[in-house]
Amino acid sequence: MKERIRRFVTGLDVDDVGFAASRDYLSPRSPELESIFPGVKSLVVLAFKELANCESENMPMAMGGRLDLMEFSRSSSYKTARFLEKEFHGKAMTVPVSYPMTMDYTTMGSVGEVSLRHAAVAAGLGNFGRHNLVIHPRFGTRVIFTAVLTDLELPPDPPVTEPLCTHCNACVENCPVGALDEEGKTKVNQCLKNSQPYGIGSNIRFWTRFVDSNPEEQKKMVKDVEFWRLYQAGFIGFQYFCFNCFKSCPVGQF
Predict the structure, then answer these.
(1) pTM above the 0.85 mark?
(2) By CB distance 3.0 to 4.6 Å, which of 116, 174, 211, 252 could disulfide with 145?
(3) Which residues make Cβ contacts (< 8 Å) with residue 72, sequence separation at least 6?
């Protein structure tokens, strides 16, 4: 069964796939898997190599590549979940690659329902680097993951035990806001303010200024490029304007 699933997934042109037992998934902040899917036994984790878009200094091009990959990954995860249900009569749930996620005061919108990084590590698809991202043995850091939860019992893949990070510190040195200065920790708020300049924080600040402004100032505000960018982000979703830690990692690039 496991090898049939592997062949199906790689047949979708997914770059790699790993399998983990739910008991081996250890995320310090995300909800317990049982609270999401009672009876869950396994995770099927899909890996997708990022295109060279992430290297571009043109942010619409860089983010466009990420959006394309997210769309492809969603489709692949959904097809995988359908395959598990149709072929093996198990239950399967897809995991969001990015959004939606719980928005509340506890997590401040920064914690996914399932940590795909920890899922990837549990499924033998890599281990953590100095940047707190997962480094894949072949693709390095330039990889994103999705996952499918299932109540099928699938033999787990072995973990990657060899450290893949070279500790070159390129990710730390290339972070423009010092979000990686403390080893083992990402200062999420600092990162998001820089990497998602048109996220919820910018929206709150803009609309707070808007309601406190007179009608003439309001007219100027909606004609300003800041509003245009917020408008675009509103229907696109999360937009990253910094890929430095992602693209500066040399592992897997040579």
Answers:
(1) yes
(2) 116
(3) 48
